[in-house]
Amino acid sequence: MAEDYMYTRDGTVDSHNNPANKKKTGKWKACRFILGNECCERLAYYGMSTNLVNYLQIRLNQGNVTASNNVTNWSGTCYITPLIGAFLADAYFGRYWTVAIFSIVYCVGMTLLTMTASVEGLNPSCDENGCDPTKSQVVVCFLALYLIALGTGGIKPCVSSFGADQFDANDEAERKKKSSFFNWFYLSINVGALVASSVLVWIQMNVGWGWGFGIPAVAMFIAIGSFFSGSRLYRFQKPGGSPITRIFQVLVASMRKSHVNVPDDKTLLYETTDAESNIKGRCKLEHSKTLRFFDKAAVEVEGDHVQGLISPWKLCTVTQVEELKSIIRLLPVWASGIIFSTVYSQMSTMFVLQGNTMDQHMGPNFKIPSASLSLFDTLSVIFWTPVYDRIIIRIARKYTGHERGFTQLQRMGIGLVLSIIAMIVAGILEVIRLNYVRRDNYYDLEYIPMSIFWQVPQYFLVGCAEVFTVIGQVEFFYDQAPDAMRSLCSALPLTTVALGNYLSTLLVTIVSNLTTRNGNLGWIPDNMNRGHLDYFYWLLAILSLLNFLVYLWISKWYTYKKFTSRLG
After folding, report:
1. Could you give the CA distance from residue 544 to residue 339 in angstroms, rounded to a whole number?
2. What distances in angstroms separate CA 376 from CA 202, 271, 346, 373, 538, one per listed residue?
3. How many whole angstroms separate alpha carbon 296 and alpha carbon 294?
4. Which end of the chain, N or C, is surrounded by fewer C-beta atoms within 10 Å?
5. Tens digit of pLDDT per residue, the chain (568 long)?
């Protein structure tokens, strides 16, 4: 019996395909390589993407609109391609090999981008009048960018899930450490982002683009080295086959049996007799009473058995049905993150426009760019992550009795409230700023005598909201995902980032069209001193409040995943 507890009970294996030994594999000794990989990869990504719009304007001679749209399209692709990487990881390659393969694609893209900025023939010729890129140089540059988008798509949904795989969910002590892992994982992201948005941006603008892109490329190679260095310590989950196929099997089987009644006794529904599910190395899921229509797929009728064999397109196991139910239950929670991502996207748009009108001096000689205030968001995350992990959880645990302090849904809800407060604070600051303008007739003044550092609280609040909502999302979607769909479900919160940006663009377009009728300047004119950016912040605050109220209803309705058996 003691020998059984030497090995993990969640189906993981070691690098030699043997059951993973608890003492020799996984936990923090393996995770330090994964965290190192993520920190360097994020440094590479943000080091290249933060200032990309300036590169397209300066070196590829693109206008503001063209460069901005190209960056938006590319960024959106970076948050859609995780669905590809996640599917391949769950269905065929496993998380380790998916990260390894797409990291190589990533490095090829980073190397090629560096070459377009430094190698003669690939980099555009420039003089005092600007740069004159050829069509082939532009094509090579965008080829590099979209190789990076593909590479990061394969990595994003898999690294966090692979790190969580290093902790056995069936071991209480390791399960607590898994929750802590997600906090430190997000911290490592922001450490990389901090270096990228400060040091690397300065290098790009003051030393050169070759060095500015070369350093992130080197960082990506270091990320690969860190990842492979821990191979012998890792625990591996085997791929479980195509999750898309299993979902469609349940849909087809339930539609075929739409006329069949579901028995009240759940034990009459079809399930394998083994300890594990029909997906090798995965736990069985307990039947839930919601979404009963899909239970029809697990009702045995005459014709399901042909020559002793069962067609999964006619009869599915309870676990397979519960996989589909789990995905459907996750979707409303996923959708509630879109408005949050819209609020988050204001840091790179409206917060910057607001800061552009304020006094940006820090001392008599140094002037801080308004976009650089996003550093305070990163610093907020770096501050609040260990505070949450070491202090807030312990205090909350005394009152809630929950091992994680808060449930995952409670944690995300707190972040949504903080995002509402952040919009209110931003709106109040804009009201005060516009009062300065009206009182002293500063309508046509480029910079009003009001320090840009009054924006720090709104950045700090958004960072705090991230610690609760974004980390909560990563943990929630991993934990509540079916065992064989964890990479795919980990990709879902990433897609809200793309959709949040698109929604922000849509809102700005609608507001601009409606408020500029009859010759009015509108809420967001070129001269912000004559506009009403505060109204836009109030709109986002109201939408966020409505989103939170819907989220409360979703949380009350949500049923957490339950196992009917544990491996081992």
Report:
1. 6
2. 17, 52, 14, 6, 22
3. 5
4. N
5. 445 568 887 778 888 888 888 888 988 999 999 999 999 999 999 888 877 877 888 888 877 656 767 777 788 788 889 989 988 988 888 899 999 999 999 999 999 999 998 888 888 888 877 788 888 989 999 999 999 999 998 888 889 889 988 988 778 788 878 878 888 888 898 888 888 877 887 888 788 889 999 999 999 999 999 999 999 999 998 887 788 888 899 999 999 998 888 888 888 888 877 655 666 556 778 888 888 899 998 898 877 777 677 888 888 888 889 889 989 999 999 999 999 999 988 887 788 888 888 888 887 777 777 777 888 988 999 999 999 988 998 898 888 888 788 888 999 999 999 999 999 999 999 999 999 888 888 888 888 888 989 999 999 999 999 999 998 998 899 888 887 788 888 888 888 988 888 888 888 888 888 888 887 888 888 788 888 889 999 999 999 999 999 999 999 888 877 655 554 4
Q: Can you say how many angstroms the Cα of residue 489 is from the centroid of all Cα atoms in its chain?
A: 11
The amino acid occupying position 351 is: F
Q: DSSP string of 132-158? A: E--HHHHHHHHHHHHHHHHHHHHHHHH
- Cβ distance 298 to 317 under 8 Å? yes
Bridge partners of 451?
A: 359
Q: Count of CB atoms within 10 A of residue 549's CB?
A: 11
347 and 462 Cβ atoms separated by less than 8 Å: yes
* Two tokens, residue 550: 């819907």
Contacts of 214 (CB under 8 A, 6+ apart): 114, 118
Question: What φ, ψ does residue 120 adopt, rounded to 5°?
Answer: -60, 135
Phi, psi dihedrals of residue 237, rounded to the nearest 5°? -95, 130
Confidence (pTM): 0.82
The SS3 of residue 303 is coil
Report the C-alpha gap between 321 and 556 in whole angstroms: 22
Nearby residues of 487 by Cβ (< 8 Å), 6 or more positions away = 85, 86, 87, 89, 90, 95, 98, 157, 158, 161
Return left, alpha or beta for 559; rule: phi > 0 is left, psi -120 to 50 is alpha, else beta. beta
